[in-house]
């Protein structure tokens, strides 16, 4: 059943002599790090996310379970069948395909309910429990207006916001308690944030999405009881908007293509390997019933899509956001290989370029986290290669982007709030909460905090300087405080969506895909761009 056409993470295998030497040297170090990280429990668990409303009522598309998954053993974390949503193309788009790997829904419950019932991620809580007042204000005042410097305090009301945050926090702590209580009774009614909300809020909750990998048995197990790890909890229908919209006015270049939204249920950007299930729990994998089948899911899914028309594609775009954006980069060259030679095939990663940098306290938060994800889920095919090295090479695009041969487009906010909250300024590295207000609203950042954030933008641009020379590549790096921007019509293509040099993201991506013109757009530093959607939590 192993399919020779698929070469998972192929660049990860291309070890030069020098790499191997580094790997060998690093293995020892990695063992130390791993040992250390096993005992360290205070790492960030990326997962939160952010929202914007889709404007007009978008199409809702039903869920399809992957047919051959059972006999291929391609399961979500909990053993359920993986799923996708398909909308057939029409007219001139009927032999073109756009695939979008969803980003993980906004809140991983595990992130909020830590073992000792402490608040793990205040910002997630503020998001999850924010009041109606904030919500209303956010709707009407999405767009920032910048008169002067970015450091002045905004419109006030932050005291109230904190009060609301405290109320929300208490409410969530209660939910955590109830959740544990119910687990104790083994009834386990699913307590998910979205379910807690009223219908109107629920819709908003559903569309707010974010990154997400699970790095421990515990966090993967708690994911099994959410749509992030099980199709049993996925909604029967989802909205298709932004890059998946079928409206010409909202999606000028791809509106009539075949469109597939790929549900993300493996917790490792579709890079997990079943062999690691044994490694993960020497105690009793079968009792745990955790499946690390990301790579298999990917292969089985691609086979199914090929069988229903993808194999005749003339043009195809693989895209994804956040963890899905990373999956897009990881699988891009394989996607190219399984399609006909004559087809035009390209990949678009939205907010999937996670930087390998130290956080404000000098800790390697994200590196340690990815290393744990790899160690848990991704068996390194060369057993001599450490998970430390693998995590670096397989999960940080800056390490492998130069090995990808298929043309790539990067949509990325230079002030990616997810990275700011989880990579640059994780709560653990800000024990006194001095970044709290700044992370809620970038306009609240003081001048020295802004300097730090500009520093991260600078690091991003530096890392991308080589990619910028890539003739087939494209980029749209805007200076907004936001995360995913391709799958919401408001940010993808509308009369007031973010622009650089008067182009929307959709227009830039179209220019690049159809070689209409060079599309490498880089914004000036925040707050220079008045067209930004900046998230206010
Ligand atoms: C599903 O499995 C059957 C039996 O192995 C195979 O003949 C068929 O081609 C598979 N279909 C897809 C879409 O992979």
TrEMBL record:
Biased composition (Basic residues): 133-146
Residue span of region Disordered: 124-160
Record field: compositional bias (Gly residues): 147-159
Matching InterPro entries: AB_hydrolase_fold, PAE/NOTUM
Transmembrane parts of this sequence: 21-39
Family note: Belongs to the pectinacetylesterase family.
Protein name: Pectin acetylesterase
Source taxonomy: Eukaryota, Viridiplantae, Streptophyta, Embryophyta, Tracheophyta
